[in-house]
Every structure is written in structure tokens, then in C-alpha cells.
Amino acid sequence: MTNETLMNSSQPIKQFLEMIETRCDLCGSSNDKLLFEKEGFRHVCCLTCGLVYVNPRLKFHKDFQTVSGTGSMGEDHLSHSQIRRICKELSMLDNYRKLNRILEIGPGKGWFLSIAKLVGWETWAMEINLDAIENLKRKGIKNIITSGSETLDTGHESFDVIRMWDVIEHLESPRALLQQIFNNLRAGGLLRLSTTNFNSLSRMVNGPDWVYLNGSDHIVLFEPVTIEKLLKLVGFRRIRIWTRSFNLRRKLYHPEKEIKVRFHPLRPFRKIIDETIKFTNLGHQMIVDAVKDS
Ligand SMILES: [Zn+2]
């Protein structure tokens, strides 16, 4: 079903709630165990490799992502500290600048690419969300790949850097896209991605109420061990993984569903935990640098 047929369809709404059984995207096994169910979505753990994912998932998951959103898509305006953070990241990425070509997959409001363009990068975006595509065009990002979220065919070894921020958890097959990313990076090029960390203190404390557990959007939930296994499987050898952030209020995603935690025993300590959790692998945001061997 294409995006257009989804929007114009007069099929009963029930059709869009159809679920489909799936296998582990990391190892291919169908041997899983139920961890918990949330809002009608079963979250399972692969008994072979440990990957956590939603099974069954919505049959038309990708079509929904195309029209109804891929997360928050980011802020309408950037603060000074956010601009400073992007500039700092771009300055680090200069170490990889040879072809002068950078691709962001799921760029949301396009802030990162806009600033990358200002400092001279040839900017590319891969996006399926219709609102996001319009927004990118308004920001002057001309190279937009709109093909399906697991299809990236730009010719091999085209990019110095591929960035993918809070996208991989939305994909039906992270493995398929990571393989494409590996193929499309030049030798010595960098993949930088971010995703939520299932093995985080926030998730352990909040259990199934953890705000990032949203079975209609987030269908594959990585942690350091599983993302490293997958990156190695597609060919990456030089991999660095770190985590940051702890928050009890859980306001970053779907704020309307936030559950206020006023009296949690960890509340008085949340700031100090947030500041120190980066020294562990238990932060709720996981960031990964993976370099393709030269
Ligand atoms: Zn598995």
C-alpha cells in the first residue's frame, strides 16, 4: 500500500489496525519471549540474540510513519546552546570531510543540515514524512531522497558522514538500512546515530511506563550490546558507543501522555544522576559512532 492509497482509502479503519507477526531483525530468529504488553503492543525479547522489539507490529507501520509522524521532528526554534552543540558536532565532523558530502536520515525540522549547509557541506536528506519534506524544501535543502525508509541507493561510497538521529527505532528493518548506510559511506566515513537505550536507568525505574515505549512508533529497541552486534554484522569494525541523560518526568515524547512523577524516591537525586550517568552505559540516550574501515 502506498502513502497515497493510505490517505485516499475508503477502507474501514479496522484495516489499519491489522497486525503482522515478525522475526528478530538482528538474527532472524522467531524464538522470543514476552517482556510486557503496553497499549496493545507486545514487547518481546529475542531468545537467541537479546534484541527487544514489538511483535506483532502494525501491518502498515511504514505508511503511518509517512503521514502521521516520525516522532516529534524537533523544535520550531533552536536555543543558543542547541546551535552551539550543532556547531561543535560539525567541527568534529570536519575530520571526515573529503568528498564534502553529508547525509542526514530523518532530519526532522532540518536544523542540523541547515547549519551544515552554512559551513559549506553538500547536504543530503533522506526523509519519508510529508510535512518534514516540505519543511526541508523551504529551508533550501535540495537533495532529498524520499524512497522507502530501508532503501538508500545513491551509488556506492558517496558520503563522508551519514547521521541518523532517533530514527532507527522506527524502522521495520534497521538491519537493511544499516547495510545500505555501510555501502553508501566512503571508506573511512562515519555513521553517527542516536537512539533510546532500552537498558537505561530511566527504563528500569519506569518499567513499561517509560515514555519511549510506544509500540505504534518505536518498534525496535536497542541497547549497547544489540546495536554493536548489528553494526558488526553489516561490516563496521570501529564502533564507539556512549550514553547520556536520565529523566523521571518523561516529557520529551508525546507530552500529552506524560505521567507526572512528583513523589518518586529518586526525584531528589535526578539532577545528580543526570549529570553523572554519562560515566555509565545506563543513560537513556545512546549515541554511536561507527567508522567504515579504509
Ligand atoms: Zn535475535
Relevant CATH superfamily = Vaccinia Virus protein VP39
Q: What is the percent of helical residues?
A: 25-40%
Number of domains: 1
Oligomer: single chain
Strand content: 15-25%
Which CATH first-tier class would you pick? Alpha Beta
Could you state the order of secondary-structure elements as H and E?
HEEEEEHHEHEHEEHEHEHEHE
In the sheet with the most strands, the strands line up as 8-7-6-9-10-13-12
Describe the structure.
The protein has 294 residues and is α/β, with parallel strands linked by helices. Helices cover 27% and strands 23% of the residues. The chain has a seven-stranded mixed sheet with strand order 8-7-6-9-10-13-12, sandwiched between helices. It is globular, with a radius of gyration of 19 Å. The N terminus is likely disordered. The structure holds zinc ion.
Give a concise summary.
This protein is α/β, with parallel strands linked by helices.
Index terms:
single chain, 294 residues, alpha/beta, Rossmann fold, four-stranded antiparallel beta sheet, 23% strand, globular, binds zinc ion
Present the secondary structure layout.
Elements: H1 3-8, E1 19-20, E2 32-38, E3 41-46, E4 52-54, E5 57-58, H2 61-68, H3 80-93, E6 101-105, H4 111-118, E7 122-126, H5 130-138, E8 143-145, E9 159-165, H6 174-184, E10 185-196, H7 201-206, E11 220-221, H8 224-234, E12 238-244, H9 270-276, E13 285-291
Parallel strand pairs: 6-7, 6-9, 7-8, 9-10
Antiparallel strand pairs: 1-5, 2-3, 3-4, 4-11, 10-13, 12-13
The protein binds zinc ion.
